[in-house]
Amino acid sequence: MTSSEAEVHQKQKTIRSKISSEAISSPEATNSQVLFQEKILEDAKNFSAKYLKKKRAANELLDKWIITNDLPGKQTLYSCGLCSGCHGMLAYPDYGGENDVWIGKTLYRMPYMTNDVYLELAKLDYNNCQAMHYDEWKEEIQSIFEPERSLERLAWAKTTALLQILESNFKDEETRKGL
C-alpha cells in the first residue's frame, strides 16, 4: 500500500469512527453497493455491515430514507396487494420539509427536492387522480345490468357502501388527524 493509500485508509477509519449513531442510510448504502476487490472498500463494507447488525440488534433501524420489507404496519399493506397509488400516498410523509438537510460528502439543501410546495401539489394531484378514478368506477358500475352479473353488482354495491362509510368518516381533517 502506498503512502497516499495509507492516508486515505486512515481518513476512512477516522470518518467511520465519527459516524453519527442516528443515521444509518449511508452505511446501508455502502454495505449494499460495495462489491469491489479493493482493501478500503472491503473495510468500508465490513464496517457498515457490523454497524447495521448492531443497529438491527438494538432495534434502531428507523431512518426514513431506508426502504425495508418489514416496516411495522406497512408489511400488511403490501401483502394485501394495495394499488401503487396507495403505496405512493404512504410515502408522502417522507418528502417535503424545506428545512431538511441532505448528507452526502457535504451537507447541502435541495430546494427542488425537499420543498413543501411540491409536497402539497403532490397531495392535491393524488386527490384529483383518486376523484377521477372514483368517477370512472361509478360509470363502470352503471354498465353492469345483465341478470347473470347480479353477484358482481352486489359486490360493487357492498364496496361502494364501504367507500361511502370511509369517505364520510375521513371528510374533515380533524377526523383524519385523530386516527
UniProtKB/TrEMBL annotation:
Compositionally biased region (Basic and acidic residues): 1-10
A biological process term (GO) from this entry: terpenoid biosynthetic process
Highest rank taxon of the organism: Eukaryota
Region described as Disordered: spans on this chain: 1-24
Residues forming coiled coils: none
InterPro entries according to UniProt: Isoprenoid_synthase_dom_sf, Terpene_synth_N_sf, Terpene_synthase-like
Example of a GO MF term: terpene synthase activity
Name this polypeptide is given: Ent-copalyl diphosphate synthase-like protein
Organism in which the protein naturally occurs: Medicago truncatula (Barrel medic)
Lineage of producing organism: Eukaryota, Viridiplantae, Streptophyta, Embryophyta, Tracheophyta
